[in-house]
Amino acid sequence: MERLLNIHIEKLPEGVYLATSDELQGLVVQGRTVSETLEIARDVARKLLEAQSQDQQLDYLQPIAEQFNYPLVLGQ
């Protein structure tokens, strides 16, 4: 089942993007673009979740709804 993980992305003064999550402790990644940052964050989040105990439930992550809004980032 897919789950929804909220992340926060900010552009740092150095020009790179930093992604963190209040929902998944340890998720701190950076990338050169928003797209790259999201890709790295997805990979790191999977690894962090796999490293958690098998007994630990993922109830704190929301299941994906049938409909939801998603901000689509477009380059110029």
From TrEMBL:
InterPro entries: TTHA1013/TTHA0281-like
Gene3D superfamilies, per database record: 3.30.160.250
Name under which the protein is recorded: DUF1902 domain-containing protein
Organism, as annotated: Nostoc commune NIES-4072
